[in-house]
Amino acid sequence: MRIGELAAQTGTTKDTIRFYEKIGLVAGRRLSNGYRDFPPETVTWLHYVRTAQTLGFSLAEISRHGEELRDAPDSAEALSALLAEKIQVIDVRMAELAALRADLAERVGTGCPFRAAARPAGKRGSGD
Asked: Within a domain: residue 69?
């Protein structure tokens, strides 16, 4: 299937497909006339890529797990493991964001919010 048809069937642009090809997410062969030709299963794979991006997976993460997922794209076990890993990453990030929010909230209303927040005596860390 040529790149225009692939783009139409997957709702992506030809430039996006070219980029995915450049970074190794999809592979096509060149026809004698120079046109790209992609196998039909690329449609399913690109739908998977788009869904994974919607769920917060980066292209690097998708690429890193791509080979195992292409071999078993409907494997509930493999996908569940990846989703569980992503949930752990999100939980860590949420904790980091909560700590950042608390730090920012402490600084609101202080004279200069970019100075370290003054801590009451007895609440200093070991590095103070």
From this structure: no
Q: What is the CATH number of the domain that holds 44?
A: 1.10.1660.10
Structural domain of residue 43, as residue ranges? 1-56
- The two beta strands, 36-37 and 29-30, are antiparallel
pTM attached to this predicted model? 0.69
Coil, strand or helix: which one is 128? coil
Structural domain total, the chain: 1
Calculate the average pLDDT of the chain: 85
Q: How far is CA 125 from CA 35, 70, 113, 120, 121, in A?
A: 63, 49, 20, 11, 10
Amino acid at 95: A
Give rounded-to-5 percent helix, strand, coil for the chain.
60, 5, 35
Q: Which two tokens stand for residue 70?
A: 């292409």
pLDDT tens for each residue of 28-61:
999 999 889 999 999 999 998 999 999 999 999 8
d(CA 52, CA 33): 34
β-sheet bridge partners, residue 2: 37
